[in-house]
Design a protein that fits this description.
The protein is of the alpha+beta class. It has a single domain, classed as Penicillin V Acylase, Chain A, CATH 3.60.60.10. The protein has four helices and eleven strands. The protein has a seven-stranded antiparallel sheet. A four-stranded antiparallel sheet has the order 10-1-2-11. The chain is globular, with a radius of gyration of 16 Å. It starts with a strand and ends with a strand.
Length: 209
């Protein structure tokens, strides 16, 4: 349950993400630098060793959103947290490094998710989708875009939040850091389940990264 924004430049980018989560889970641990075998990465912690967003010193960033509208084939029993996906991959130094790790990764027992990867060296944005049995991918152009997730409806979140994001593109500072912060804190149409800053009885936007 999140909103992700990627703003691209010629060979740079900015990324921002709201983490919408059950209030009882808490905001997690603030971002910290982590040492890996081949690189360093910075990311927040969900309190159980997992994360929803990370970036490493090679310029690669990964973000994970729950995939709620997909109907998994058969009955899926959750035995592993999706929060473990990014820490297992963020040590990659290139897109092809990450592909190699993916080829030996096992996501069995994880509920459906979408993983977005930003690779400035290749000027590509990749999106992997796991439906609980199969992994597929899509390559996006090097253009600014948004992703939306809601346990109520990904499709409705994309429609309503997407409209708010498109309207915000007309602002004079669109794409800047202040603009991204303002957008992700916005409540177009009033605070609610499909505003960018989420407000529900038991769920809300707990953090912005």
């Amino acid at each position: 349950m999140c909103t992700l924004t990627v703003v691209t430049g010629s060979d740079t980018y900015r990324m921002a993400m709201n983490r919408d989560e059950k209030i009882a889970r808490g905001a997690g641990v603030t971002p910290e630098m982590q040492e890996f075998d081949r690189t360093r990465a910075i990311y927040p912690n969900d309190g159980d060793g997992g994360t929803w967003i990370a970036a490493n010193e090679c310029g690669i960033a990964l973000a994970l959103l729950n995939w709620n509208d997909i109907a998994p084939p058969g009955k899926t029993v959750k035995t592993r947290s999706r929060g473990r996906v990014i820490p297992a991959l963020i040590d990659s130094r290139s897109l092809w490094d990450l592909h190699a790790v993916f080829s030996v990764s096992n996501f069995t027992g994880m509920l459906p998710f979408r993983l977005v990867g930003v690779f400035p060296s290749e000027r590509e944005i990749w999106e992997w989708r796991w439906d609980s049995t199969q992994l597929e991918f899509q390559v996006h152009e090097w253009k600014s875009r948004h992703w939306f997730s809601s346990s109520l409806s990904d499709k409705q979140a994309e429609s309503l939040r997407g409209a708010a994001c498109r309207a915000a593109q007309d602002e004079s500072d669109a794409g800047s850091v202040p603009w991204m912060r303002r957008l992700h804190a916005s409540h177009g149409g009033g605070p609610g389940p499909f505003s960018l800053c989420v407000h529900r009885e038991d769920v809300k936007t707990l953090s912005y990264s």
